[in-house]
Write a structure and sequence with these properties.
The complex is a heterodimer of chains A (about 120) and B (about 120). With about 120 residues, chain A is mainly β. Helices cover about 0% and strands about 50% of the residues of chain A. Chain A is globular and about 40 Å long. The model of chain A has no long low-confidence stretch (mean pLDDT about 90). The chains are: A mainly beta (about 120), B mainly beta (about 120). The interface of A and B includes residues 49, 91 and 103 of A.
Chain lengths: ~120, ~120
């Protein structure tokens, strides 16, 4: 159980275009989803936390107008990288927390999306 | 503030030998501790967690971790390493007393198991 999927797994786009990444919890409902960014050989950097039906909370230094997050349902959150530039190239990972859980619950992670901006 | 330290960037071990991946943490409230594994170009896979109770926690794929409150450590262990265990391992902590309950990750440790 507790499967999180991401789509697409790999995307290459031209500079200036926008890219949407989907994150779905397949077998559980997630009130809270998290978006992380990971640079090569580095740890995960939390970008934002999204709660279903409300605006996302962004971490310091993350541009909310550049990384648009929508959490429209209990099983789907999307991250849109707007006007992407080569420096946005990275591995983006989403994570979801089970609706039924409290502070002891586990976060489950998606397989990640590798974005390459040319 | 909460933090996690994984002092070793890489751990090398021969197949069949025991392995240990170290983790120490700092948190003001009750520590909820997690280990995740990441294979190349993949997301993180949950291995085990400590919330309360027995200090020795058993998880997936034969891994276990021991919570040591006095040393603020949560080292990951396995009695006999497999080549397929080679991956990137992350320790994470959450403050159980904090309503925000954010996970904070360590920098990761690359485990290399050689045949």
């Amino acid at each position: 159980g507790a499967v999180v999927s991401q789509h697409p797994s790999w995307v290459i786009c031209k500079s200036g275009t926008s890219v949407k990444i989907e994150c779905r919890s397949l077998d559980f409902q997630a009130t809270t989803m998290f978006w992380y960014r990971q640079f090569p050989k580095q740890s995960l950097m939390l970008m934002a936390t999204s709660n279903e039906g409300s605006k996302a909370t962004y971490e310091q230094g993350v541009e909310k107008d550049k990384f648009l997050i929508n959490h429209a349902s209990l099983t789907l959150s999307t991250l849109t990288v707007t006007s992407a530039h080569p420096e946005d190239s990275s591995f983006y990972i989403c994570s979801a927390r089970d609706l039924a859980g409290g502070p002891t619950d586990t976060q489950y992670f998606g397989p990640g999306t590798r974005l390459t901006v040319l | 503030a909460q933090s996690v330290a994984q002092p070793e960037d890489q751990v090398n071990v021969a197949e069949g030998n025991p392995l240990t991946v170290k983790c120490t943490y700092s948190v003001s409230g009750n520590p909820y501790l997690f280990w995740y594994v990441q294979y190349p170009n993949r997301g993180l896979q949950f291995l085990l967690k400590y919330i309360t109770g027995d200090n020795l926690v058993k998880g997936s794929y034969g891994f276990e971790a021991e919570f040591n409150k006095s040393q603020t450590s949560f080292h990951l262990k396995k009695p006999s390493a497999l080549v397929s265990d080679s991956a990137l391992y992350f320790c994470a902590v959450r403050d159980g007393n904090n309503a925000g309950n954010m996970l904070t990750f360590g920098g990761g440790t690359r485990l290399m198991v050689k045949p």
